[in-house]
Write a structure and sequence with these properties.
The protein has a domain of about 120 residues: Translation Initiation Factor IF3 (2-Layer Sandwich). The chain contains 17 helices and 21 strands. Helix 7 packs across helix 11 and helix 13 packs antiparallel against helix 14. The model has no long low-confidence stretch (mean pLDDT about 80). It starts with a strand and ends with a helix. The chain is globular, with a radius of gyration of 23 Å.
Length: about 525
């Protein structure tokens, strides 16, 4: 993971990274974000351990008085890392910090000034000319989000795995600090602390709680256990609403929600690879990514090999071991292969997912041999490093086969069939094709998929939401292709693509009066039928 570097002034960044006018403006914002920018070639004054594999650096300016004093003494880049254990909540008081680091530090330098901004670890990057938030800072100051006026006093509880609280009070809306995985006891305590503090801070008793539709989510279980009125919002709808700008008229809007897909919707509907169509306060789920089996369930979300094996088994069945690259196949003996076959045959701890994010993780395991996604953006950074070594997007490549099939007897849904693409990827690997060439074909395939849908439905705007779009090079390629063909694309501006921004989507769904259940739109369904028929032919 790139180690963040703090520089003493904005003028110092030119020696290390390629920065434009927008990047300089973002660095100077009061939130003091870190900015991920492309590293200059042959930067000899920085240690190679700062960003050993990637081509980007995370650069920031001093965000506190103490850092300003320190940088004034050093006059050189300062590498800063988190002292906390991975995925544990931040220490919010000096006493908590001293307890956490007992035996590891001699003394602590602190400031007695009140915290007036988030701590300087918000991470943003420029993506297709737009500002994309990769991670929100863990400061305790709520971030005000511009939103349509809502007279209700609401608390939005966010998602299932990671979350942030959202508040709507007196026609103002706020996003609170991110909370770690709720299955960890300390994070769950932090969730309740945040909830109680927010009520005390704003001196209000919420009229309504906004929660995820998945009843297995701890946030939804909490909401339903209270006596407060609860409105449950579909996970993919909340993601999409988080990406819609304030005062934007929802008319002919096509929205892609490609994320981790760990939750379930109404009637146990799978999430993670959805295309929605929005008109006013109505919406319809029109396209879904073809599902595959994820062995290990939610515990395998960051296990790239488990994602790959699920994809291969869905495509090749027991013959999957014959097509697995030798460097991966050699890691398993016959007994281990038999155990994996039993897992799939008996569906032991297996569940279906439509997650495009997990699909990318599996592809990284196939092409690069990566085992786990060790931190947010890790797998995408490794794919990006491969592409940056030899990448010429101007070179023409042909897409893999990419059918769009109709599903169900009513044929109200279309399915993006990725199995022929995976078969083509395996064939290219067997023929000795490089990972860069294969990834270019994958980019082209996704672009043709989405372009075919957009060319049929003629949306006013295409919303991109979900953690899969943290894959920077793929997202830029997709946005460039859509823009070249005259389609407007939109990313969330002030909030992260992952579930840490879900609460704002839940608040926006309430303020816009969005229908809780999808509404069938016959004209859209008829158009999708034509897409599927042309795809088959």
């Amino acid at each position: 993971q790139p180690i963040p570097c703090i520089l003493d002034s904005v003028d110092a960044i030119d020696a290390f990274v390629l920065a434009g006018v927008k990047e300089r403006d973002w660095l100077m914002q009061s939130s003091a974000p870190l900015l991920r920018m492309k590293k200059r070639n042959n930067v000899s004054s920085l240690s190679g351990q700062i960003a050993p594999f990637g081509s980007h650096l995370d650069i920031g300016l001093p965000g506190s008085g103490i850092l300003h004093l320190l940088m004034n003494l050093l006059h050189r880049p300062l590498a800063v890392i988190s002292g906390a254990e991975r995925r544990l909540p931040n220490a919010c008081t000096e006493r908590e910090a001293l307890q956490a680091f007992e035996g590891h530090i001699d003394s602590m330098l602190v400031s007695d000034l009140p915290i007036l901004r988030t701590t300087p670890d918000s991470l943003v990057q420029r993506l297709g000319g737009q500002r994309q938030v990769l991670r929100h800072g863990k400061g305790i100051v709520p971030q005000e989000i511009k939103m349509e006026g809502s007279k209700k006093e609401l608390i939005a509880l966010g998602g299932k795995r990671i979350t942030s609280l959202g508040l709507s009070v007196e026609e103002r809306s706020f996003l609170l600090a991110p909370i770690g995985p709720l299955e960890q006891g300390s994070s769950l305590d932090f969730f309740f602390d945040n909830l109680n503090d927010s009520k005390a801070l704003f001196d209000h008793d919420p009229q309504q709680l906004q929660a995820d539709m998945d009843s297995q989510a701890l946030t939804a279980q909490y909401a339903l256990s209270t006596e407060t009125k609860v409105q449950q919002i579909e996970h993919d709808l909340a993601h999409v609403m988080a990406g819609i700008p304030c005062d934007f008229e929802i008319s002919h809007v096509m929205a892609l929600c490609f994320d981790e897909g760990i939750g379930l919707g109404r009637q146990d509907e799978l999430n993670g690879g959805e295309c929605l169509w929005l008109e006013g306060n109505e919406w319809q789920r029109i396209i879904q990514f073809e599902s595959f089996c994820l062995p290990g369930g939610d515990s395998s979300i960051d296990d790239n090999r488990a994602c790959l094996f699920g994809m291969l088994h869905e495509t090749f069945g027991k013959k999957m071991w014959d097509v697995l690259p030798l460097k991966l196949r050699a890691q398993f003996n016959l007994q281990e292969i038999e155990q994996w076959d039993q897992v799939f045959d008996r569906k032991l701890q297996c569940r279906q997912t439509r997650s495009v994010t997990q699909w990318w993780f599996g592809l990284a395991a196939l092409l690069l041999g990566t085992h786990r996604n060790r931190y947010q953006g890790h797998t995408f950074s490794e794919l990006e490093a491969v592409m940056d070594r030899e990448m010429d997007l101007r070179r023409g490549v042909k897409p893999y086969a990419h059918p769009i099939n109709q599903a169900g007897e009513a044929k109200q849904m279309s399915i993006l069939g990725w199995k022929p693409m995976l078969q083509g990827i395996v064939t290219d690997m067997q023929q000795g094709r490089h990972a860069q060439y294969i990834l270019r074909r994958v980019f082209c395939t996704f672009s043709q998929w989405i372009l075919k849908i957009a060319a049929t439905l003629h949306p006013q705007c295409i919303i991109l939401s979900g953690s899969a779009f943290e894959n920077r090079i793929w997202t830029e390629y997709l946005m460039g292709t859509l823009t070249q063909h005259g389609f407007r694309t939109q990313l969330p501006d002030q909030i992260p693509l992952n579930d840490n921004g879900l609460a704002i989507g839940q608040l926006r769904a309430a303020s816009r009066g969005m229908n809780v259940q999808p509404t069938e739109m016959p004209s859209i369904t008829e158009a999708l039928t034509k897409i599927s028929e042309s795809s088959v032919s």
